[in-house]
TrEMBL record, chain A:
SMART domains: AAA
Predominant place of localization: membrane
Naturally occurring in which organism (per UniProt): Devosia pacifica
Protein name: ABC transporter ATP-binding protein
Membrane topology: Peripheral membrane protein
Protein localization: Cell inner membrane
The organism's taxonomic lineage, starting at the top: Bacteria, Pseudomonadati, Pseudomonadota, Alphaproteobacteria, Hyphomicrobiales
Stored InterPro entries: AAA+_ATPase (IPR003593), ABC_transp_ATP-bind (IPR050319), ABC_transporter-like_ATP-bd (IPR003439), ABC_transporter-like_CS (IPR017871), Oligopep_ABC_C (IPR013563), P-loop_NTPase (IPR027417)
UniProtKB/TrEMBL annotation, chain B:
Protein name, entry field: Peptide ABC transporter permease
A Pfam cross-reference name: ABC_tran
Keywords annotated in UniProt: ATP-binding, Cell membrane, Membrane, Nucleotide-binding, Transmembrane, Transmembrane helix, Transport
Residue stretches making up the ABC transporter domain: 320-571
PROSITE patterns registered for this protein in UniProt: ABC_TM1 (PS50928), ABC_TRANSPORTER_1 (PS00211), ABC_TRANSPORTER_2 (PS50893)
Molecular functions (GO terms): ATP binding; ATP hydrolysis activity
Keyword Cell division annotated: no
Gene3D superfamilies: MetI-like, P-loop containing nucleotide triphosphate hydrolases
Family: Belongs to the ABC transporter superfamily. Belongs to the binding-protein-dependent transport system permease family.
Sequence intervals crossing the membrane: 28-49, 94-117, 129-150, 196-224, 260-279
Superkingdom, natural source: Bacteria
Length: 268, 598
């Protein structure tokens, strides 16, 4: 268990910057600038940063939704370029993504059965009997009842929808999960439950998590290591406990100071 | 069309039945449906009906008036029976109209779908071609196409289909574009679907209602265009009759025998009218926005329907006192209560936090105070809101409206959606001032700049002419606060003012609110879901659950020693910096054994 699940080296992503239809130069946005990271097998690496820091762009590149402008990424031992050549299936078997807004990530016009069926059929190539059995296992894993399958996404609360989205991510048997703000759209009590579920699934299936969040307290409770992103760059990376106790970069310090605390009540 | 949207709130989510009932509730659409069904039935039955051959000429009996024996609607200039020609002609016109719509919908939707999905250069090129097609006057383009292909019904059909492709393409592209960037499309890709599969199994089902709506609203138009081409002699060729060619042939006898052209004219009118009425009805039923009543114009003040009018309070009452407030949403004959008897009070210079999870009724409570809950379906069914001892809800509507942004003002969650995108922020603040005070534009503008300085915007003079999108989220929220301050309010109600902001920005906005409260003696009602925010600035906190306040008290007391089980659980679920991995172990016992409840 010492291999690396994800290893990225000097990855950049620039949007725009090309030529427009009439040859004018377009404004370029440097979303990610030279990021190098490593996610070890079985580890939870958190990426923290505020809006516009490039953390979501980085995540989208890792799952193949965007192509990096430059730099190399290795996912589960295979080069990302190689995976991209093999098509979306190759990526999907290696790494999966859980979106921030669980309801928006489920097609409103499909039942949960239809939604879960796709990765099982396309990525695993299971026959219909095996798919049925696997769906039950997945729902069990995320602690949802079996009658979930025949219902539509809008019938579920945010927390339930996120469980379903996690089940879909697990369906492909990918060992690496990119969690993009998986709990920030949820109420606190639901958030705690989903965090517990993620923790349990990690044990059960031996997963590695790349956990993206802006909430430092949530990050601290789930991660082994933390990388702080600011304006497209990783400004600080380190062991979660050390980083929160002794932040080195000024931005990290500012971030930690700004986080609201319950203990603040004493001060006012 | 407003009749359809009204009962929509009552409609259960499921099924065709409710759509049908909605359609029938719209009287005009129902009339359209019945008229169209009758016309369709007659047209379909044309071969069975005892009609004379529409193409047999009978010169001696030419131009007979209507109600002549054997010719109910008379005869035309060649002595042909008009009734027979009308029914056969209607059949042809409807057939051509529907086929043209189907062709245009198919090709237009395909173009729209692919342009919207692929995006980038391909989209650009396709849309510019469509623009070119649109730039021609439609009749000219149709004429040109028919001129190339030669006259004839089929060619007219092609021409009309081509002319209407842009209409579909543009509509469908817009919808596709917004769906293409939704998360479920990305999710489908990660599940291993190829582009084609995504386009047809993920995107298309969501676009389909729009295609149907567009079709239902264009069929009538297409029939009219077919008639137009036939009228010019480019569509149906003699002896085939369609409504347009009948009209065209009758034109010569307009003065001697007006019925020859009037009969097909009236038929076109009835047909197109009924289709359009029905189409509008279908659109109203299928359009989710109309269905939800979102496009309904809400009333100025929430309906207030209280059994008893509350007594005014004594003079030494709190600045704001809410007593036993009940607000619900009307659904059919029932009222679903969202706020169930909430009471709290707020003194000058005090900050009360109203905290709860989604659906707890905290925002509805905040909006109820000045009757801002959208009505219909909202209704305030009990309770009172005392401002300086006087019940706001007993006042006439105009007075309640005048309080808004005056003595009591609101700050909302997302300033990007509450600020008008087309006006500069300075103008919007100035407008907030002039809505309540008489003053000339210059003074108002100067005051606006002053307010912007108060809320800590640097270079206020220049920033005043900036538009909302040019400002960062934090700055926009400062503008929102400046607008709330415009008329020196006594109470500010802030509904999740920092939820959309980053933590570092949030800290600064909270600091600002705190400073304003201290300097101006403002009373602040802060609606939030975040205990951290409450801990930072609130003196007292009220915890809401399912429309009720379950616990209320000094912030530090409630946070340190919560009394109610719900509060305890909520606070335990808030992760805190410094706790680290122990947090999960701490909350695990809370949820053991009932995992799927989330």
């Amino acid at each position: 268990m010492t291999g690396s699940a994800i290893s990225i080296d000097n990855v950049t992503k620039t949007f725009g910057g090309g030529r427009s239809l009439f040859g004018g130069e377009q404004h370029a946005v440097h979303a990610v600038r030279g990021v190098s990271l490593e996610l070890k097998d079985g580890e939870t690496l958190a990426i923290v940063g505020e809006s516009g820091s490039g953390k979501s762009t980085l995540a989208r590149m890792l799952v193949g939704l965007e192509r990096p402008t430059s730099g190399t990424m290795t996912i589960g031992g295979a080069s990302a370029d190689e995976l991209a050549r093999q098509g979306p299936q190759a990526f999907g078997r290696m790494i999966q993504y859980v979106f921030q807004d669980p309801v928006a990530s489920l097609n409103p016009r499909k039942t949960i059965r239809q939604i879960l069926d796709v990765p099982l059929r396309r990525l695993r190539g299971l026959d219909s009997g095996a798919r049925k059995a696997r769906m039950r296992e997945l729902l069990d894993a995320v602690q949802m009842p079996v009658d979930t399958l025949e219902r539509y996404p809008h019938e579920f609360s945010g927390g339930q929808a996120q469980r379903i989205a996690i089940a879909r991510a697990l369906a492909a048997n990918a060992r690496i999960l990119v969690l993009d703000e998986p709990v920030s759209a949820l109420d606190v009590s639901v958030q705690a439950q989903v965090l517990l579920l993620l923790d349990q699934l990690k044990e059960e299936f031996g997963l590695s998590y790349l956990f993206i969040s802006h909430d430092l307290a949530v990050v601290e409770s789930v991660s082994d290591r933390v990388a702080v992103m600011y304006l497209g760059e990783v400004v600080e990376i380190g062991d979660a406990q050390d980083l929160f106790r002794q932040p080195e970069h000024e931005y990290t310090r500012n971030l930690i100071e700004s986080a609201p605390r319950l203990a603040g009540a004493e001060k006012t | 069309m407003s009749e359809t949207a009204l009962p929509s709130a009552a409609a259960p989510q499921s099924g065709r039945l409710s759509s049908w009932q909605l359609l029938m509730a719209n009287r005009l659409a129902a009339v359209g449906l019945f008229a169209l069904s009758a016309i369709l039935l007659i047209a379909i039955l044309a071969p069975i009906l005892p009609l004379p051959d529409p193409d047999i000429t009978d010169q001696p009996n030419r131009l007979l008036p209507p109600l002549s024996p054997g010719h109910l609607l008379g005869t035309d200039h060649l002595g042909r029976d008009i009734l027979s020609r009308l029914i056969w002609g209607t059949q042809v016109s409807i057939l051509v109209g529907i086929s043209a719509t189907a062709i245009a919908a198919l090709i237009g939707s395909l173009i729209g779908l692919s342009a919207g999905y692929v995006g980038g250069k391909a989209d650009n090129i396709m849309m510019r071609l469509i623009d070119m097609l649109m730039a021609f006057p439609y009749i000219l383009l149709a004429l040109a196409i028919v001129a190339v292909l030669g006259p004839g019904l089929l060619n007219a059909l092609y021409a009309i289909a081509v002319v209407n492709i842009p209409f579909f393409a543009r509509n469908i592209r817009g919808v596709t574009l917004s769906i293409r960037h939704s998360e479920f499309v990305d999710a489908a890709r990660l599940s291993g679907k190829g582009h084609l599969a995504i386009l047809f199994t993920e995107v298309l089902p969501n676009v389909l209602p729009v295609i149907v709506i567009t079709m239902s609203t264009t069929v009538g138009w297409m029939i009219l265009e077919t008639a137009g081409l036939s009228f010019l002699g480019l569509g149906a060729q003699p002896p085939t009759s369609d409504l347009g060619s009948m009209l065209g042939q009758g034109r010569a006898q307009l003065f001697t025998a007006p019925h020859v052209s009037m009969v097909p004219g009236i038929m076109i009118f009835l047909l197109v009218m009924s289709i359009n009425l029905l189409g509008d009805g279908i659109r109203d039923v299928l359009d989710p926005r109309l269905r939800s009543g979102a496009l309904n114009r809400p009333m100025a003040v929430t309906t207030i329907d209280r059994a008893v009018k509350p007594e005014p309070r004594k003079a030494n009452a709190a600045l704001l006192e809410v007593a036993n407030l009940e607000t619900g949403f009307r659904s059919g004959n029932r009222v679903n209560a969202a706020v169930k008897g909430v009471s709290f009070s707020l003194n000058k210079g005090e900050c009360l936090g109203l905290i709860g999870e989604s659906g707890s009724g905290k925002s509805v409570t905040a909006l109820s105070l000045l009757g801002l809950v959208a009505s219909p379906p909202g209704v305030i069914s009990n309770g009172a809101v005392y401002l300086d001892g006087e019940d706001v809800l007993s006042q006439p509507d105009s007075q309640i409206v005048a309080q808004r942004g005056g003595r009591v003002s609101y700050v909302f969650q997302d300033p990007l959606t509450t600020l008008h995108p087309l006006f500069s922020v300075g103008d919007q603040i100035a407008e907030a001032i002039t809505a309540h005070q008489r003053m000339d534009g210059k003074t108002a503008r100067a005051q606006a700049v002053e307010l912007m300085e108060t809320v800590g915007i640097r270079d206020a003079q220049q920033r005043a002419s900036a538009y909302p999108h040019e400002l960062s989220g934090g700055q926009r929220q400062r503008i929102g606060i400046a607008m709330a301050l415009a008329n020196d309010p006594d109470v500010i109600i802030a509904d999740e003012p920092t939820t959309a902001l980053d933590v570092t920005v949030q800290a600064r906005i909270l600091e600002l609110l705190q400073k304003l409260r201290r300097e101006r003696g403002l009373a602040l009602l802060l609606i939030t879901h975040d205990f951290g925010v409450v801990a930072q600035i609130c003196d007292r906190v009220a915890v809401m659950k399912d429309g009720e306040i379950v616990e209320q008290g000094e912030t530090s007391d409630v946070l340190r020693a919560p009394q109610h089980a719900y509060t305890k659980r909520l606070i335990a679920c808030v992760p805190e910096l410094g706790v680290g991995r122990a947090f999960l172990d701490k909350v695990r016992p809370l949820f053991s054994g009932k995992g799927a409840e989330a």
